[in-house]
Amino acid sequence: MLAFLGTIGVAAALIGAILLVVRASVVARGKGGADLAGPVKLVVAGSMTSMAAMQIALALDDFSIAYLANNHATATPFPFDVATAWAALEGSILLWGLVLAGFTWMVFTAYRRAPDRLGAAALAVMGIVAIFFFGLMTTVANPFEVCVAAAERGCLDSSPFPWATADVPIDGRGPNPLLQNHIFMAIHPPLLYLGYVGLTVPFAYAIGALAISVPGAEWLRRSQRGTLIAWSFLTLGIVIGAWWAYEVLSWGGYWAWDPVENASFMPWLVATAFLHSALVQQRRGMLQAWNFVLVISAFALTILGTFITRSGTIASVHSFTQSAIGPTLLGFLVLVLVGSFTLFAQRGHLLASAPRVENMVSREGTFLANNLLLTVFAFVVLIGTMFPIILEAVTGTRVGVRGPFFNRLSVPLSFLLLLLVGIGPVTPWGGATPQLVWKRIRGPLVAGLIAGLLTAVTVTRNGWVVITVVLGVFVIASTGALLVGQAGRRRSKTGEGLAAAIARVTKGDARFWSGQLSHVGVVLVALGISFAANLSQHQEVVMREGDQVVFAGHTITYRAPFQQRHPGKTSSGIRLEVVRPNGSRVTLEPTHNFFPGHPNGVATPAVDTRASGDLYVMLLTLDENRVATVELDTSPMMWVLWLGGLTVAAGGFLSYRNRRQERAPARAEAVGV
Amino acid sequence: MSERTRNLIYGGLIVALIAVVGFLIATNPTEADRVSRLGASIMCPVCQGEAIIHSPSEMAREMMDLIEERVGQGATDQQIIDELTASYGQGILLDPPVSGPTLILWLAPAIALVAGIGAIVWWRRHPSDPGDPTAAPAGRTRTAVTALILIGSAAAVLVAVTSFLQDRDETALGVADLQVEDLDEVSNQTLEAVIAANLDHPQISGMRLALADRYREEGDYRSAFPHYFAVVESETSDAGQRVAALAGLAWITWDGNGEADTALGLLDRALEIQPGSVPVRFLEGRILHCSGQSDRSERVLSDLLQEPSLTVEWKQIVSDELAAVEAREVCA
Amino acid sequence: MKSGMRWVGYGLALAAVVLSVILATRFGRDPGLVESPLIGQPAPEFTLPSLDGEETVSLTDLRGDVVVVNFFASWCLECRLEHPDLVASSDTFGPTGVTFVQIGYQERPQDSSAWLDDVGRSDHTLYLHDPGSRTAIAYGVFGIPETFFIDPDGTVVGKIIGEADALTIGATIDAIKRGERPGQSVTGNTQQRPDS
User: Fold this and answer.
1) Among partner residues A334, A351, A394, which is closest to C5 by beta-carbon distance?
2) CB pairs under 8 A, 24+ apart, for B319-326?
């Protein structure tokens, strides 16, 4: 029954999307009004119905649905049973559809307030993307296929017809062990998808504007909210993904330049460039054509990312199975790129009329440099990810492009970007004398260098760490000096307290200051990465029961091994008693988790997080004589990395909120006029 | 303090600080040793994308030991890298080489950066071109280019789909499921090994029969015998296989040992399993003929010739044999 | 300038098509698979102790034979599956100028021996221990089982990745005896140590 309900939901959403494209194109071409509410509601209701059907099926353990038989088990505990809905390919497309429906609704509410051709055109583009994804769900990635040949666990063969006679397995295979090990893995995909799918909104407005031949800045203004929320969620998704990798996975830290990680990082870089260049066009009317290129690229990169994750053409630690979805996604990617850039080319004569940057020593000048660096960065990641495939296809030889290549190129690019983050915000729009900029940055530069000197003398003389500290402190000092300076001027006028003045200043230009919050976050991330990469210590020890080792100031005693049975998993681990450098005690329990139906266990490290740094313990082996091989790591100040990542995202969300608030009076004006 | 003095103070301070910090960094004593530097540039073969120095796997640790030993023996970095790539291929290097095709990879970012700067400079030098929204876009070229691109993309999609539908790289012979066909290239020893390794396989009789027939044709009756025998005895043989094996046994018993009676007994057993089997009855007639019992042979063969289901080929063979028997020719 | 923008657009579209065609050629290939660079090269030498430690065997002693070098371990499922085929092949081909060498991979020799006691040995096969995995590294072993075929001149001419069945082994040896170079074939999955 639930297969029926789900299939009906998907079908309804598909029909709604088709109707939406048909009707919205009529409106967009200016050939009269048509009801768009109906189709949009059908898309939203359809996608919600299908997700609801999936969730109910999961709650009821309905293994007649092949997806559940292969990815769910009776023993799967909350919240992983909920997250199973998007843990595998078909379900992740289902979630994609739901999120896309949500963003379509967002575009529609804007259209409903002020119906016009641009809004309708954007809705038509949203509809085209929706047709593709709901089309996937009815063909190559159907989440509601009925199991017609059950295995002992799981399903061997399935039918796309919900009325097919089901052969129900007694239990399912359960989700991938990696995915049921940590709460982060339940929330990481939805966050990432909110980011990925959200980038459809600026894409839809951009293509809509090109299609009806009204470039200009209107599409930018309309898509701003969508862009900001997508970017913020993308940031959050990447941070949570890295955190999860650190807490759960055993493959070395939080970031490995794995193709799938790169797939999420590339759209982030391009979207970040777009956030800045959109500002330039809005303030100064420049970079019109460039903004279209960025938005199209960002959206295409999300499709490319999905392709990389799901097609099985690129070797990756995120091993997903291969299916017919690969060619389909590739076809869609070609369609998106060719269609968009052909449209762009045909409207080329409308785009070339923008003014130029007169003076490079200006805010727009720094943004131009920032865009150059960010797109080169994205290009580095893209070519590093794709080059092995291209080379092998062309010459048949195989090369590995791994961490060192990316690190080597991303470190100097990141240093240059940090330098710009310090200079850009203190450089005025329209142009300034170099003297003015020099006057504003010389103090912060000295502050940064002194911090660097202190670091070199007291902590480490590692060049990467020292340079990161210099640049980080420079950025914070430069931003801080700007804030304190503005607040000071305000105080001298109004006589209020410093805190109140700072609050006033930040409220007064909330967009700018939420951006600066993200910049501070970026500094923290840079520091966190630099510390972790250069100052961590590492040791591997073999321990018998009762053995004691001293590692980086910690005294670690192996007390006893243990076995635990949980619903849906069995853990075997060891209990370690740790005396921290400051004398306090903590017990750590690194484990191996085993899940029914999956032969290989998953190692779960134990992490003792403190302000000065993390002690990270991983159980490598535990033999029948209770001898354990343990890997010990210290990473100084890892929390700085997580805090930084969250701060970057927080800046985005704050900016989003402020833009909502700004819109309210603007609407009142419009009504008044 | 004048602005100029301030500039001088800040400038001097910054230069001095950069010098000191730079010196401290440059003289950082903990320079990575050769072993760890090499270890950081080699990918652990059993774990995706991780350097052997960072990998906890046994393979990675053993490779680190090897590198340490080779460094101790005085091998250069290049020698050690060459040795490892000779075994594992270039793919084991974390850093693609700065030469050959991967040079493009290293140059591409620099080219992109220079091109970007060039584009910005060019863009700023060319003052704004007053846009002309009403200008009609070039007609024919535009359509041609659009058509070209759309055709190109259609082709790309086509390639994508067809290459997916194409058979995957066939890896080996028809392994595992013991295909008896297409075994012409395979030696008798290989078949012996396959049979020995798959004694419990339900289709093993087919393979035994193929091998035994091959031995029989080669005249190696001694090797053929145990396989025919095993097919007759095996529970997994079907009726056809058992009959064929009995026929084979009958022939080598007669032809190899001259024991006509035993051979005929075996053929009787085959006929019990498959009454009226044409090849068996023909063989019976032939063995009777060859062992000098021409009358019985004539009877058997002429009975067989009356069989309405006989194919044209068999009819020819049987009537030829019958003619030979009737002429009392010596059997060939 | 106006047409400049247009050509930028068309150029990007074309680049996308080219990239996609290249990507499309990759469907259906195993991205993790590497053609061994050893094929066609002289086989890496080794001198290894037998599992019981009583004798040592050197590859040079076997020159003139076709040598089949297989890496196995007791913890490897595919090795258990292929073992009867290796034993049968060695029994059949052993007397005909083919030597089978099985090298224990990343485990103590006593563990390999105990496992062989359980699954059986061929009288013609040499069972060896590889201290420090040096030989495995020299042969570029990624995961086991992997089986290498060396011709009488000492050149690596074939490799089977994954479970090797008697038919594939035999067909490879037949081809080598005919003077062909069978190259690499993949018959299944390989394993890494469960704790790595």
Assistant:
1) A351
2) B321/B282, B321/B285, B321/B286, B321/B289, B322/B285, B322/B298, B324/B289, B325/B285, B325/B289, B325/B294, B325/B297, B325/B298, B325/B301, B326/B298
3-class secondary-structure state, position C191 = strand
Give strand pairing partners of B43.
Answer: B51
Cα B284–Cα B287–Cα B293 angle in degrees, nearest 5: 100
Length, in residues, of chain A: 673
User: To which residue do tokens 């996604």 refer?
Assistant: A329
Torsion sign across C-alpha atoms A257, A263, A264, A268 = positive
Locate tokens 């080319």: which residue? A345
Structure tokens at B210: 């193929």
Give the Cα separation of A443 and A439 in Å (integer). Answer: 8
Q: Do B163 and C167 touch (CB under 8 A)?
A: no
- Chains with 3+ CB–CB pairs under 8 A to A are B, C
Instruction: Please state the separation of Cα B107 from the chain's center in Å.
Output: 36
Q: For tokens 């009358």, what's the residue?
A: B295
Q: Is the pLDDT of residue B159 over 70?
A: no
Determine the Cα–Cα distance for residues B121 and B119; give it in Å rounded to an integer.
5
DSSP string of B229-240, one letter each residue = HHHHH-TT--HH
Contacts of B140 (CB under 8 A, 6+ apart): none
pLDDT(C31) > 70 = no
Is B25 close to A461, i.e. CB distance below 8 A? yes
Distance CA A371, CA A369 (A): 5
Mean pLDDT of B313-320: 89
Q: Which fold has domain B33-117?
A: Helicase, Ruva Protein; domain 3 (1.10.8)
Task: Supply the DSSP symbol for A593.
Answer: E
> Can you list the domains of chain C with their CATH numbers?
36-186 (3.40.30.10)
Place of tokens 């000096």: A481
Phi, psi for residue A17 in degrees, rounded to 5: -65, -40
Partner residues linked to B293 by β-bridges: none
Contact by Cβ (8 Å): A348, C2: yes
| pLDDT tens by residue, B49-81 | 677 877 767 788 889 889 999 999 988 989 999
Query: pLDDT tens digit string along A181-208?
Result: 677 778 888 899 999 999 999 999 999 9
Evaluate whether C93 touches C176 at the Cβ level (below 8 Å).
no
pLDDT for position B30 = 64
Residue A113 structure tokens: 């307030």
Q: Which residue in B10, B133, B145 is closest to A350 by CB distance?
A: B133
Interface of B with C in 288-317 (CB under 8 A): none
C22 at interface of B, judged by CB pairs closer than 8 A: no
Q: Is B114 touching A (CB cutoff 8 A)?
A: no
For residues A656 and A194, the answer to whether their CB atoms sit within 8 Å is no
3-state secondary structure (DSSP) of residue A609: strand
Q: What residues form DSSP beta bridges with B271?
A: none
Cβ–Cβ of B88/C93 closer than 8 Å?
no
Spatial CA neighbour of A414 closest among A448, A444, A373: A373
- Which residue, among A432, A429, A441, A528, has the nearest Cα to A476 in the 3D structure? A441
Helix, strand or coil, per DSSP, at residue A228: helix
Integer Cα distance of A137 and A53 in angstroms: 14
- What is the residue whose two structure tokens read 């490897």? C76
